Amino acid sequence: MNHQLIECVPNISEGRDAAKINAIAAVVETVEGVKLLDIDPGKATNRTVITFVGEPENVIEAAFKLIKKAAELIDMSKHTGEHPRFGATDVCPLVPISGITLEETAVYAHKLGNRVGKELGIPGYFYEKAAKEEIRKNLANCRSGEYEGLKEKFKKPAWKPDFGPVEFNLSVKKSGAIAISARDFLIAYNVNLNTTSTRRANAIAFDIREAGRVKYENGVSGKKVLDKNGDPVRIPGKLKAVKGIGWYIEEYGIAQISYNLTNISITSMHVAFDETVKAATERGLRVTGSELIGLIPLKAMLDAGDYFLKKQQRSLGISDSEKIKIAIKSLGLDDLKPFNPKEKIIEYLLENDSKKLIDLSVSEFAEETAGESIAPGGGSISAYVGTLGVSLGTMVANLSAHKAGWDNKWEFYSEWAVKGQTYKNKLLFLVDEDTNAFNKIIDGFRMPKSNTEEIEIRKQAIEDATKYATEIPFQVMETAYNSMEVMQAMLKEGLQSSLSDAAVGVLCARTAVVGAYFNVRVNAKDIKDRVFANDILSKSKVIYENTLTIEKEVIHLIDSKM
Q1: How confident is the model over 122-135, as pLDDT tens digits?
Q2: Which of 17, 83, 184, 274 is catalytic?
Q3: Are residues 203 and 315 in the same domain?
Q4: Which of 94, 154, 174, 544 yields a CA-CA distance of 20 to 30 A from 331?
Q5: 284 lies in which domain range?
Q6: Chosen domain end from 141, 158, 182
Q7: How many helical (H) and strand (E) elements, i.e. helices and strands, does the chain have?
Q8: 556 is catalytic
Q9: Is 434 assigned a catalytic role?
């Protein structure tokens, strides 16, 4: 079974008292296997978004402790803030990250809610995928009336809580209620305006959000237009899967449009931003930037970078870090405060803290290789040389995309640069994976062998590890060989002033193939499964011979042009 991982993003109704916020967040880290990723307080909203991840059982244990601590430290009868709210822990969504479905995540949401109601005496509602009634799917419905309306809301049979007490007792007066859900990844995203007018910010929010605005007989005034059931007719907004309201943020002295992007595969952050820019311009306002609340998936940032690069007719074949810089500047994510990708992008926060070979500087890599340890060795070096080779080819493609007079060809070069980046990233992975594969063999030899069963298990582990240590350099061969297509295309179609760069790229790829071929051969000789060994050796020889042919062709080409 796949490793299951879920994210929990509780929003607590405290954004000003750092001591309380930190005390509430700290309980998360008392649960083993749960990683606290982010604490994002807002003074004007008097609300803090806390983000943590882990395996489901551990996450709901951490969530329970957080909800308990928040109820102890926050008195909702004294709370004020710009954001809609009805509880000390206002919402507690569970989000599937890997190895688990949304439906399975909903089961954990129900388990958490029932425990909160029974053990803490906090009432609440299940919403989104965890909702048990259609009307409760929408958080806005569950939270309607906010904290101040809870006493009367609980008296209505239609709004009896899904869990916890059904009366507004003294305990509930302090803790308020909570909404718990299982939902897809949601981005809380605010767009900044050059105005202090909440009314104008709301007008733009109504233009954009899916729910749009209520229709009136005289356009924006007069009686509401009702449908045959007596419900207000709505004029839908421009974008699906978007919720939004306008508000004034005293902390920054500006009005914002606060969006919830509930499905970024339907409406992305950059599309919401650009449509807001258009709507603001039409109303005589200007967007000055935007603000991300909580965390964001890496893909969303890279997609934003690609979107703005395309608008500029620039190559997409640049590094992730450069794309992220483009996204930050284009969206104005650093308008109100610095935006640190290492603190805001979820994949970066989940990265293993152990240092990889590819994280070393050039000199550190050389020193590590030159040391007394037997790894990194020829396999890792071959993969790294291949990385340098395709990086040169990618560079030529990107330079060619900028050449004056070649503006109509930028997409052609961009496609080649994107291919180059894909090969580069695979080879960078293989730099460390070759060393990891070697270490698996060492681990096999260190296994106990005190009896017949242990001896057989040890033999099989060594055999499997040796196969893997043969497959990795074969992947280096394949990837480096295939990457030559980028350099060959640039030799033919790229900047002629960069011919030597593309040619050096081919020679680096050739070195990677030959070096990895040596590793395949030396490891394959120890494999007991000779069918497997002979098959990989046969494939490797074909790649090796084809590579040498390409090398000769490139050298001949360079000699003929220089």
Answers
A1: 999 999 999 999 99
A2: 83
A3: yes
A4: 94
A5: 187-350
A6: 182
A7: 18, 13
A8: no
A9: yes
